[in-house]
Amino acid sequence: MLATAVVVWKWFSPSMADAQSFRLGWMAEIWIRNVALVCLCAGLPHLWLYVLRRQNDDLRYDARPLGKGKRLFLFDDQVKDNSFLSLVPAPLIGTLWESLGWWAYAKGHASLISFDDNPIWFVVLLAVIPIWSILYFSVGHWLLHRGPAYTHVHSWHHKNVNVGPWSGLAMHPAEHVVLYGDVLLFFVIASHPVHLLFAMMHHTMGAPLSHTGYDGIKVGPLTLPIGDFYHQLHHRFIECNYGGAESPLDDWLDSLHDGTQAGDEKISTRRRSLSAAKRG
Ligand SMILES: [Zn+2]
Ligand SMILES: [Zn+2]
User: Fold this and answer.
1) What is the mean pLDDT of residues 63-67?
2) Gap from CA of 237 to ligand 1 centroid (Å)
3) Contact status, residue 215 vs residue 52, Cβ threshold 8 Å
4) What is the mean pLDDT of residues 15-34?
5) How far does the centroid of ligand 2 lie from the alpha carbon of residue 167, in Å?
6) 3-state DSSP call for residue 77?
7) Which listed ligand is nearest to 211 at the C-alpha?
8) Which ligand is nearest to the CA of 212?
9) pLDDT above 80 (res 280)
10) Fewest CB atoms less than 10 Å from the CB: which of 14, 47, 167, 207?
11) How many C-beta atoms surround the C-beta of residue 107 within 10 A?
12) pLDDT for the residue 278
């Protein structure tokens, strides 16, 4: 994700002169590049794993097929529903957030640093971004599971009990606004566009790649560890693993499902007590 952020900054980003004012030209270029990134990160794994079935169900978490003919989904089809939401609202809202960032750098509303001027802060911030991203996602995601936020917004993402790469960004557009909103950090602390892009890649690339439905993708003798067991369990059992393995949130909430029988029993009890509390 960091390497992609550097390549994008070097060759696929607007100039500071262009970003002085919001214009369709440079914003459309960002949008096209973001659509292309989603196509690569969701489309390629989908092609490999679900169309060509290059490794059949080897390393797959849940071997049941993705939903077809189900009225729950847009176009009655899980893959069409998921790819529509990943390709239309997701890159559009990501592009608007990113454009706001470029404009803020260009106008001096966000303070801009360079590696040469501030090498230590530059590197420290690169290390902070994955932590910030995980914490922001964990807390935001847990809040999306509460009350009307779940019923009206986050339930769209949870139509997917079993997931594929296109499911990662398949969510209500209001959730895209929240998801990419972590870039607000760069309005209050000094940063470089590579930092902004690195944070964005956690969603544009990270969301599809964490929803492959497989524990890894086999390419020749290599197994690329692309997938997220804990998040797969979140889609199956819902009231667990809001943050995943790296986040402390599930330890605090005692909501970590580790995939064992004991985890199953713990989360069944949690779900029963949450629905009892809801009934009052
Ligand atoms: Zn959720
Ligand atoms: Zn998910």
Assistant:
1) 94
2) 10
3) no
4) 98
5) 7
6) strand
7) 2
8) 2
9) no
10) 47
11) 12
12) 81
- Looking at residue 102, its pLDDT comes to 98
Closest ligand (CA of 86) = 2
In a domain, 250, yes or no: no
Q: Are 37 and 218 in contact (CB under 8 A)?
A: no
Position 258 in a domain: no
Ligand 1: centre distance to CA 145 (Å): 6
Torsion of CA 227, 45, 183, 162, to 10 degrees: -50
What is the number of other CB atoms lying within 10 angstroms of the CB of residue 208?
A: 30
Q: Which residue's structure tokens are 């330890």?
A: 251
56: left (phi over 0), alpha (psi -120 to 50) or beta: left
Domain presence at residue 273: no
Q: Residue 269 falls within a domain, yes or no? A: no
Alpha helices in the chain, H assignment, sequence order: 2-11, 24-38, 44-46, 78-87, 89-107, 119-144, 147-148, 173-180, 185-188, 193-204, 206-209, 229-237, 249-253, 261-279
pLDDT band at residue 160 under the 50/70/90 scheme: very high
- Domain assignment of residue 157, given as a range: 2-242
What's the domain count of the chain? 1
